[in-house]
Design goal:
- The structure is a homodimer of 263-residue chains.
- With 263 residues, the first copy, chain A, is of the alpha+beta class.
- Chain A has 2 domains: 139 residues, PSTPO5379-like (3-Layer(aba) Sandwich), CATH 3.40.1640; 111 residues, 2-Layer Sandwich (PSTPO5379-like fold).
- In chain A, 22% of the residues lie in helices and 24% in strands.
- In chain A, strands 1, 2, 3, 4, 5, 10 and 11 form a 7-stranded antiparallel β-sheet that branches. A 4-stranded antiparallel β-sheet of chain A has the order 6-7-9-8.
- In chain A, a hairpin with a 2-residue loop joins strand 3 and strand 4.
- At the A-B interface, helix 2 of A face helix 2 of B.
């Protein structure tokens, strides 16, 4: 699907909707913003919206739909969240029960969809600024860790802050901090750098999600709040029903990366 | 109450709670962040939280309480929102019915409180950077206008964007834009500058709220999203019950202005 690399966000969505694409989205629709998806019944939506408001670094909201409306009008008018992602996860009482390519059959009039910013946006900005991103160089998924830092709870939602890690030279760590500080809707500035034990990570070589990344001599591990955090909160809160994207299989928006550079 | 000018936010709250202060708060507890207050029943809270999420420039959230909890734990631990403001407004079905100094008698277990950033924060930053603020120089309230720009609606909430205006030289307008861009939780960058008709303002000399401000030759009017916007949305939505601060009579937080400078 090489043509999808230079396609628009709308073209990737159309390929998903037509059943022509069901794979991971890193590198697709270059320069278009990708988003994490969390879908919950209205009865749980206030608690989750409050969780995002209180934890903006792991959960920067790009759009929230009206109950029952599958169209994220602010970031992708005309899109259909039931069909336009390559793969979904369906959860019941905190357990993963299915990974379908379409959730039309699961849709309900009381579902509220949350679209949350994604690190792919700032990784593109880092690379454009000459800051190398190790896991991309190594052709692997980014390493992610559950930390000892607890999110601010909200109603029935609580859980650990999940972080992603990129090894950088000190100079690149400074540059990355400057760049990411301008992108609060793509997780913003790092939450930690240096000693992994400082945020309760025992072993960098054993990430809880994704793949390990090589830390070279003279580099420091730099940690960012991660969009997997809401999935950890969902697993703890165990709502009766939820839908998310399948990790790595994101929603392509109509926003361009530069739209997230600034307020 | 001159001693309150150099007091802490907590000291101003204590004076309000003790019934020793019931006046307007501009200039009080210098360097402490002040906040707008909106209190709504839980049944209306999701719609209003979504309204704030969709309209972050007029409604930058600093804190949202759990239902029934009068303590804004994130920005003023130990505070009591029922007693710690100098003056309140009580609304029924969109009509102002009372302006009490204490809302303890009105409190209910289902009330959710929203604390929203305030322009006082960026005005201090502007003055510190040598950018004069006309209405402060003239000892008047800032001029505010309902515009032809509609907010993004959310559930039962909709309404016009309300803006505040400060006349600046072109050079100061650029400087102010730089400074305010770093403060998204204090309304952020201007939403408009120049021709008032561009956002539907017919007459700068007749603001809808506050006082007119003199625009001198060579100055341009610069417009910021304003914290009165939620009150305009409340008046349109007419929820059965709501509490707000009395305009100009804000909640003093424990945050310092520099906490809002950055992400």
């Amino acid at each position: 699907m090489d043509h999808l690399r230079t396609a628009t966000g709308a073209a990737v969505r159309a390929a998903c909707r037509a059943g022509e694409f069901a794979g991971p989205t890193p590198g697709l629709a270059a320069s278009f913003v990708q988003a994490n998806l969390v879908v919950l019944p209205k009865d749980w939506a206030f608690d989750f919206l409050l969780f995002c408001q209180r934890n903006p670094k792991p959960c920067p909201l790009l759009d929230v739909t009206d109950p029952g409306d599958p169209e994220p009008k602010a970031i992708a008018p005309g899109a259909d969240l039931r069909t336009d992602l390559p793969a979904y996860r369906v959860w019941r009482h905190g357990e993963l029960v299915e990974e379908p390519a379409d959730v039309t059959a699961h849709w309900r009039d009381d579902l509220v969809s949350f679209l949350i910013g994604c690190s792919f946006t700032f990784e593109t900005a880092l690379q454009n600024a000459g800051v190398p991103v190790r896991h991309i160089e190594e052709g692997r998924n980014v390493p992610m860790y559950r930390t000892s830092v607890r999110c601010q709870p909200a109603g029935r939602f609580a859980g650990p802050l999940v972080v992603s890690m990129r090894p950088l030279t000190p100079g690149h760590a400074v540059k990355a901090t400057q760049i990411c500080s301008r992108m609060p809707r793509a997780h913003g500035s790092p939450v930690h750098l240096g000693d992994p034990a400082g945020i309760g990570i025992a072993d960098l070589d054993r990430p809880h999600y994704g793949d390990p990344a090589t830390v070279r001599p003279g580099e420091v591990p730099v940690f960012w709040a991660c969009g997997v955090t809401p999935q950890a909160a969902l697993a703890e809160a165990r709502p009766p029903f939820a839908i998310t994207h399948k990790p790595g299989h994101m929603f392509l928006t109509d926003l361009r990366d530069h739209h997230l550079d600034g307020e």
